[in-house]
Each structure stands twice: as C-alpha cells, then as structure tokens.
From TrEMBL:
Gene3D superfamilies assigned to the protein according to its UniProt record, in alphabetical order: Phosphatidic acid phosphatase type 2/haloperoxidase
UniProt KW keywords: Membrane, Transmembrane, Transmembrane helix
Name the UniProt record assigns to this protein: undecaprenyl-diphosphate phosphatase
Phosphatidic acid phosphatase type 2/haloperoxidase domain mapped to chain residues: 105-218
Organism: Psychrosphaera algicola
Keyword flag Hydrolase: no
InterPro entries named in the record: PAP2/HPO, PAP2/HPO_sf
Enzyme nomenclature, EC number: 3.6.1.27
SMART domains: acidPPc
Length: 302
C-alpha cells in the first residue's frame, strides 16, 4: 500500500509541473499580445454599440420576440445543452482541458472570472431589471428550463462564456481558431434569448463585459504572477476539479442537459488522470492485478 502511495506521489511530477509553470510564466510575460487585447476590446465595443442601437430603436426589450420565436424550430434538448455551456461550473470544468498545456490560461481565467463576477453582480443589483418571465405571459414566448424572474441585466452566462472564449482567443495563434471561438461564444450567448432567460441587450452587454474582464485580467496577470506559483496553481486546479465532479449532480436548471453534464464530468476526470500522471499508476496497478490473477489461475489449474 505504501509502495503504491509513493508511486502515485512520484507520478504526479510536481517538480516537472513547477518547471512548466516557470516556463509558462516567462512566455506569458515576454509574449504580451497588445494587438489581441485591442481586438478583444474592439469586439466588446461592437457589442455595446449594437445594444445601444437596439435600445434607441425600440427600448430595452427590442428584438426578443424575433429571436425567441426561432426556438420553436429547434430541439429543446439541444437548446438546453447549448445554454448550459454558459454555466460558470461548466466553464470552470472546461478549463481543465487547457490547464496543463498552458497554465497561464488558468490564472487569466481565474482573475477574469473574479472581475466579471463583481461587475455582473454589481450591475444586476443596481439595475434590478426584470427577465422575460416577469414581463411576458408564459403563452407569449418560448421558455425552456427553469423560469428565472429577476436579475436580467447583464447576462451572467454570456459574461462567463466570453471570459472563457476571450482567454482562449488571446492565447490562440490561429485566426481561424479565434473566429470559431467567437462564433461559439456568440451561439451560447444567443441561446439565452432562445430559452427565454434574457433580453438581447442583456446578452450583448454580458458578452462585452466578458471580453473587457479578460482584457483587464491579462493586464493584471502580467504584473501579478502569483498564479504561476505551484501551490496556487494546484489550489486552482482543485477548484476546477471540484467543479468538474459537481457536474455529476448539476444541470443548471436544465434537466435535459443532465446526461451531457455527467458525460462532461467523466471527461474532466479522465483529463486530470491523463494530464497529471495518475494514468501511469493505474495502468501499472491494473497490469499487476491482471498478472497476479493469471498466476493464481495457473497455480489453481496445476
């Protein structure tokens, strides 16, 4: 038992992870991408400008019915899964897929999430805007999943997914990948209107705030690099891992996404095992168990 425990500890490769964090820190500082940050800010400005045009044209609720009516042509299960991807627990779990390959993404997302959370909750409390379920009769629009009535502005799901998307866009070197990430974020944000949870202006401002939060986070992380400390990094990984495991019981109010959530939970568990060396221990242990079983079977036959 002690030998197995020692094997597990040695296979975690903390020394190697420390070196990876040091390299990631140097690359992050030396590779400061000011043009990408400007591009993210420009995208945020476009979202804000569109929301201003919508508000000026016909008020806060402009465009809701037009977009929401599209839900009648789409499978409800698909809409629930898509909008569930904007859940903060899901976004945290998804970061496990990138944490070992590029530890800097984890530190940036963490700081951006804190900034975004403070802005979002502050604005929700200050503006206290009503959601569609509080304004419209249930027969007037499509509502999918558990109805929510308060805290419409801005959209927290949109902010969350754009923190995730903007972080990956910043670290991506391919324009095509950046474009796909942007479309991915826009699709999930749009789903908030399709499921009847938000007005179009909510998702536009939420998306813009996610982009702005990420720009601020990158700038802050350039100066404060404590996130590359081994202990801090492992604490953040533990947080992500806990988020991933919680998906076994968490559907974000969208029951048709429950099976997808469980599948994602298994994937995050697999990624942690694969990326942090435990797979070697498990493989060796299973092989040893199989060999002992074969030896016992041979002895029994003899």
């Amino acid at each position: 038992m002690t030998s197995l425990f020692q094997q597990i500890i040695s296979n975690l490769k903390f020394a190697q992870l420390r070196q990876e964090l040091a390299v990631s820190k140097r690359l992050f500082i030396l590779n400061f991408q000011s043009k990408k940050l400007l591009s993210l800010l420009h995208t945020a400005i476009v979202f804000i400008a569109i929301s201003a045009i919508l508000f000026a044209s016909n008020g806060y609720h402009t465009g809701f019915q037009t977009i929401n009516n599209v839900s009648g042509y789409l499978p409800e299960s698909l809409l629930q899964i898509i909008t569930f991807l904007g859940d903060s627990t899901v976004a945290l779990a998804l970061m496990l897929f990138f944490a070992r390959k590029n530890p800097a993404t984890l530190w940036v997302v963490f700081v951006a999430a804190i900034i975004g959370m403070m802005i979002s909750h502050g604005m929700k409390d200050y503006f206290a805007m009503l959601r569609p379920a509080s304004v419209l009769a249930s027969t007037e629009f499509y509502i999918i999943g558990k109805p929510v009535y308060l805290g419409s502005f801005p959209s927290g799901h949109s902010l969350t997914i754009f923190v995730f998307v903007a972080t990956l866009m910043y670290f991506s070197s391919r324009k095509q990948t950046q474009l796909w990430l942007l479309l991915f974020g826009m699709t999930i944000s749009l789903s908030r209107v399709l499921v009847g949870a938000h007005w179009p202006i909510d998702i536009l401002i939420g998306s813009a705030l996610g982009l702005i939060s990420t720009v601020l986070a990158v700038t802050i992380c350039q100066r404060f690099t404590i996130g590359f400390n081994l202990v801090i990094h492992l604490l953040l990984l533990t947080l992500l891992f806990a988020a991933g495991l919680s998906l076994f019981q968490h559907d974000g109010g969208y029951p048709l996404a429950a099976d997808f959530a469980k599948l994602l939970a298994w994937f995050t568990l697999f990624v942690v095992i694969k990326d942090y060396g435990l797979n070697n221990v498990i493989t060796k242990t299973l092989a040893s168990t199989h060999l002992l079983h074969k030896m016992h079977k041979i002895k029994r036959n003899n």
